[in-house]
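Here is one chain, start to finish.
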Amino acid sequence: MGRFGAQYINGTFYHDLHPVAGKLLIGLSEYVSGHNGSFTYTSGAEYPPHINYVFQRASMAVIGSLIVPFAYRTCRFLGFGRAAATMGASFVLLDNALCVLSRFILLDPILFCFIAMSLMGYAGFARHRHQAFSAVWWRWLAFTGLSLGLAISTKWIGAFVVALVGLCTIEELAILYSDRKTSVLTQIKHWIARVVCLICIPLLVYLISFQIHFALLRSRGTGDYKMPSQFQSLQRNNVVSRQPHDVAIGSQITIRSHLPGFGLIYANETHRFPDNADELVAAGMPGKQANNWWEIVSGAAKKGNDTPSVRFIADGDILLLRHVGTKRYLRTGNAKPHIQGWDRRVVAAGNTTAPSAWDFWRVRIVDDVSPRPSERLYAVTTRIQLINKISGCLLTATPAQLPKWGRDMSELICSQKNTSMAEGTLWNVEQVRDKRFKNANYQKLVKRQWLRDTVWINREMARSNNRLVPDPDRYKVIESSAWSWPFLIYPMRMGAWKDDSIKYYEIGNPILWWASAICCIFVYPAQIAYMLVCHRRKCSSWKPAEIRQFWDVTKLLWGGWFTHYVPFFFFGR
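Its structure:
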């Protein structure tokens, strides 16, 4: 994770599958330690002399060590005595797994710290539940919301502690609703307080973290290609920011979909459809490559020699898109798509001397965000749709991935739903090559839309997460199934496993892990079942207040274990 911190210092944009709050803290520790951003923490590389990695690792260790006092305060808020709370904090202190994790520059100690903060915050709020709307009540409720926001802004796994607090909150509000002594106005105030502190504050923290992220990363980097064209045009040194704004017949362009993850329309001679070797695969490919380029060819009939030297593209114009590398045209037809078993297939086919009637596309200009006249097509700022002249179908990007023969690219189809305004049907010119036009100043043409960019990058993060599914035919020694974790059957190695390298073995304290596994899996559910049976038979020796206290304590502790463990049985990785 050190390389992400370095990129905050040198300002180069990156893409990662995790949110940004934890990486911002890593970047802060690197900045304070004197790092200038020149070293990118390449795996296996030696640290140069100016890298104070001891300070950076110590920062993570300090954050990881905060879990211990947070655990103590949580226990105290739940009604534990000093001795019991000290013992609970000692269990955290003596856990090998947490100790090893905190030695590395990773997001995990930061995540665990914020999760522990959230539990402490909610326990403190629950301790003062009978002082509703007092200053201390508001303070702990707001602190809980802040902690939840930091947790989910570090990793989406933080959503588990959000779910835990949410379930506890629903139970509290249900109890208030069933209490006839509580007025409707008071119940509304309780709802508003929780919506503000447990929904709005975490959401605000999440959005602010991305606002800081975008503010710091203003230069071209490895992750630009994941973002919309308008975002790229505002990045320093990005190729999209150094090109013409005008587009005309004869221009060479790349075409980006407004469906996140699809990327640019791509074709080459290598990838062909298995049922028709004469047709090249035209599909979506992230990233900028030579095979993304298409030349705009006029689809209008020539009238003598009166064709102007520069012919701009207006709404309703007919054109052909000829692939620069293969000289094939973007074409549809009667064949069905490979995955989407309806509508029409889109391919790259034909040649420069014999275009087909299926190669003609009509331009529909949807809108333009630049201050220039919107009657014609521009690069970056104009959203368009492409409608096939023969069939009337709409060129549409889909999230479906082609098999290996299609290089796992996203399938491109032509949909008969030609009135749709879905994001998969919207396109824009991302890059343009045309020596007839001068480069434009996109700072004057495009405004930064950080909320749109935040939504976009989160959808790209979700797509990256969903693609990380382990191959069932490939065995990996560092992977294990959730059922084995409580029993430490397959501990994890940390770092390289070479003969000449220091080795770290990620294994929890066996006494603590095995004992807690027995308690969480067997003892506590058995105890709850026993108490329910005794309550039904009216033979329980526990007073109602004691049962309530027992439930308030254990629902948070056991519920935390359950919500952070059981979901992994349903995850692909």
